[in-house]
Amino acid sequence: MIYGCDLSHHQSTDAVEQLVRGGKAKFVILRTGFGTYSEDTDFEEFIKDSEAAGLANSPYHASYAGTIYEARQEADFCIDRLEATGAKIELPVSYDYEYFSARYNEQRGIATTPQLVQELTEAFCERVKERGYRPGVYTNLDYYLRFYGEEFFEKHPDYAFWYARPGLVAPDLPCDIWQYASNNGLADFGYNGDIDKNIIFDEGIIEDDIDIEVMQPLSQHSVPLYIGYASAGDIETLVTYIEGLGIKTKVVDGYIITKPASKGDQCYIMTKVNRLGNIDCRIYEEPKPEEEQTDLEKLQAKVKELQRDFDAEVEAKRCWQEKAEKAEAQLEQANRLLAAERASNEAHSKELAVCKDKLAKIKEIVRG
Q1: Count of alpha carbons within 13 Å of 214, Cβ hemisphere only?
Q2: pLDDT, tens digit, 9 for 90 and up, residues 339-355
Q3: Which residues are CB-contacts of 13 (< 8 A; sequence separation ≥ 6)?
């Protein structure tokens, strides 16, 4: 048996956060709107908050339909609103035809009869099934006896029965969800205001893969969070989500550091982190500053720095000395080669002079 509340724009916009702090609610039933075009103005905010907090979602739609066609239109309007949020729906999508519905139809000259109510309900619920969701029906004892009856629900065992019957110790009809009270929720649910309260007796009505455990905040105060290590894709997902809550982030080497997050935002963020897998989330603590060095440590550090500079200078001088010695040796070798070249040139000059002298003598002999 699990407890939950149904919400509409009649509740405050922070209703989900209050329920999360209260800790009792494990699911919420949210009104998408009424008729074929009127939206509940707080639906999107409520379903975003409930999904982030790990609560199971069950939408319902208030009907103004007077024909089968209008009932199917209402189902599409309801489902379109759901799917636009991208939220996961773990509980039935319920049809709500009650007193306001009958009054509206009477103003249009349409009488509310058992046949009409059942046809409208079937049109809505069957369209919900066509769109891939389990349908449900909300009604009270008066409308159950006047318009539905036991036969209707026996005919449609796949329609979840959400029964509004406050004031009893236990429901007097078999039902899937029992709306057992409508009063101030501060004492039991932590919500400061009037709210409808519900019980699910059989948790099998919830999809098997839903985890109804609600995350608890890391701190009762606003604190920065340290999240990671995470992949680049998960970091991008988390940063987009966290900054969507109005909390600035900083990414450092695969970790996310957030600005202070409230208790409610801590729950939302941790739920999102858990859904991504094995990623750590904890309170961020500023690194402590290094302790100041003592005068002796500072002096020793300065001596080491000077020693490094001296050694570097000595090494530089040694390198230059080696280069100078090498250059001097190369110069000496060049001088030796030049002297040898000069000696060779002098020998060649002498040989040339001897040859010239011999040539002159040969010419004289030839003339004589």
Answers
A1: 26
A2: 877 877 787 788 778 88
A3: 42, 45
Handedness of CA 8, 132, 74, 181 (dihedral sign): negative
Write the pLDDT tens digit of every residue in 10-21.
998 899 989 988
CA angle 46, 3, 98 (to 5 degrees): 70
Residue 61: phi, psi to the nearest 5? -130, 130
Q: How many CA atoms lie within 13 A of 228 on its CB side?
A: 20
pLDDT of 111 higher than 80: yes
Note the pLDDT tens digit of each residue in 193-217.
Answer: 999 999 998 767 765 444 444 457 7
For 97-104, which contacts have Cβ atoms below 8 Å and span 24 or more sequence positions?
97/63, 97/65, 97/121, 97/139, 97/143, 98/62, 98/138, 98/139, 98/140, 98/143, 100/62, 100/64, 101/62, 101/63, 101/64, 101/65, 104/64, 104/66
Contact between 136 and 93 under an 8 Å Cβ cutoff? The reply is: yes
Give strand pairing partners of 154. none
Q: Which long-range contacts (CB under 8 A, 24 or more apart) does 74-77 make?
A: 74/35, 74/36, 74/124, 75/123, 75/124, 75/125, 75/127, 75/128, 75/131, 76/127, 76/131, 77/32, 77/33, 77/35, 77/36, 77/37
Both tokens of residue 362? 């040969």
Q: How many residues appear in the chain?
A: 368
- pLDDT band, residue 151 (cuts 50/70/90): very high
Q: Which two tokens stand for residue 79?
A: 């489902």
CB neighbour list of residue 19: distance below 8 Å, 6 or more residues apart: 5, 25, 28, 55, 189, 190, 191
Q: How far apart are CA 257 and CA 52, in angstroms?
A: 19
The pLDDT of residue 341 is 77
Contact indicator for 188, 24 with CB cutoff of 8 Å: yes
Stated pTM of the model = 0.59
